Amino acid sequence: MAKSAAVVSAMLGAAALGTASQAFTVASPGSVRTTATTEQRSLRGSAAATASGSNSTGAAVVAAAGVAAAAVSANRRSRRSFAGSTVVPVEQFYRDQLVARRAELKEAGAPAPEETDEHVAMLEQAAKQMMATASAGVVFTSQMGQAVAYPIFAQQNYKEPREYSGKIVCANCHLAGKPVDTKMPNIILPDTIFKAEIEVPCKYEKRVQPIADGSKAALNVGAIAVMPEGFKLAPKDRLPKSLKKEMKGLAWSAYSKEKPNIVVAGPVPGTTYPKLVLPILAPDPAKLKDTDYGKFFLYFGANRGRGQVYPEGNSSNNIQYMSPAAGKISSIDGLKITIDTDKGPVVSEVGAGADIVVKVGEQVAKDEPLTTNPNVGGFGQEEKEVVIQDMNREYAYCAFAFSVFLSQLSFVLKKKQFEKVQLAEGF
Predict the structure, then answer these.
(1) HSE-up (13 A, CA, CB side) for residue 252
(2) CB 229 within 8 A of CB 292
(3) Which residues pair with 369 in a beta bridge?
(4) Each residue of 222-244: pLDDT tens digit?
(5) Neighbours of 26 (CB within 10 A)
(6) CA angle, residues 12, 14, 16, in degrees to nearest 5
(7) Which of 23, 30, 219, 394 has the fewest CB atoms nearer than 10 Å to its CB?
């Protein structure tokens, strides 16, 4: 009997708690306090009812009834307070809050939220640019351990990379001449992608050059392509998968914003890119007024290794040093070689990493080599031509060839017929 009374009291307490929890949802502050007080009383009442249920059934029932009555009265008070309060929709509340915050910002002289969003977007863009610059710096420093060739030197100092004489300006710093082999189709169709393979031959596994600090490093390669106006680098979304695989992740970029028809690549490791693949998008003469069908000339240049002259005019350490005057070698102090001449001692300083081939006491003539020639790279350029073919011309040629074929066939058949007639008449 005691257990059943405890169960009844627990059920009544749960019902009271449910009623109190419903009363707690009222938005009025007074009702919230009332609900909290009612909930606490309900908890104490249910606990007291459970404790007294073990003694007698009547006491448990009376306690549970008291808890239920308290919950009902609390619910009625909360309903009265709810009826006296004003319910504000959530959307209207947030809208009023936003209007109030905007008015406070205007009174304080602060910028509007839209302007703040624009400033945040500008800061994000600046941060992205800074990250890109930092990434470029990391790539630059990571490549310092190789004998590099930077097309950026030509981009900064020459508006036109190809001179009137036909020489590409890369040859002004890379004095040694080396071969370059470019392969590309001779005939193409308008608005199509074709590839140019620029092969830079060299034994990259064995060849090394001195870098700025004098240590030896592997060779890098770079390339440039000077194309007629209308030709440009093929967009990535139009590249076929096979061509992307042949490129091996090689990145080409425009020489400048004004010259999208001139592209450069590098420096990249020569061991990975002995052959540079360039995807080119041919122009469509039907859409471009200044471009017509016919023959076009493309100029390619490629380099391996460091140059001998910097854009400022000073020489690098990747050269062979000569004796400035005739005389006798009196001393060799590190990179400084002193030559005693008829006019007095002359000091010739060689670059870092140079291999000196003269000794103290040796007689040298003017312009005689003092060091070995460390340069194993060089620059080469090549000219190619391509024809943009008009399909209407192709169709016309096919029609003309077919008509000639029919005419020749008719002549042959007519001759055979004539011969048969002559044989029938006895000639």
Answers:
(1) 27
(2) no
(3) 322
(4) 999 999 999 999 999 999 999 99
(5) 21
(6) 70
(7) 394
Amino acid at 414: K
pLDDT in tens, 109-140: 777 767 777 777 777 777 766 664 554 444 43
- The highest-level CATH class for domain 327-373 is mainly beta
Please tell me the distance from the alpha carbon of residue 410 to that of residue 55, in angstroms, as a whole number. Answer: 128
Strand partners, 315: 309
The residue whose two tokens read 């009374």 is 5
Instruction: List pLDDT tens digits, range 325-377.
Output: 999 999 999 999 999 999 999 999 999 999 999 999 999 999 999 999 999 99
- Do residues 318 and 207 touch, judged by C-beta distance below 8 A? no
Query: Where are the domains positioned within the chain?
Result: 2-87, 91-143, 146-304, 327-373, 391-425
The CATH H-level (homologous superfamily) assignment of domain 146-304 is Cytochrome f large domain (2.60.40.830)
Q: Rg (Cα) of the chain, in Å, rounded? A: 45
Between strands 378-388 and 187-188, the pairing is parallel
Q: For residues 377 and 220, give the distance between their C-alpha atoms in angstroms, rounded to a whole number.
A: 9
The whole-model pTM stands at 0.61
Q: What CA–CA distance (Å, rounded) separates 357 from 368?
A: 11
Which residue reads 């890098």 in tokens?
Answer: 220
CB burial readout 55-77, b (16+ within 10 A) else e: eebebbbebbebbbebbeebbeb
CA angle 293, 299, 302 (to 5 degrees): 150
By the 8 A CB rule, do 143 and 152 touch? no
**Cα distance between residue 326 and residue 361, in whole Å:** 13
- 8 Å CB contact between 378 and 202: no
User: Tokens 């052959």 sit at which residue?
Assistant: 275
Distances from the Cα of 361 to the Cα of 266, 320, 328, angstroms: 45, 21, 6
Burial of 147 (0-12, 13-18, 19+ CB in 10 A): buried
Residue in the block written with tokens 């249910």 = 46
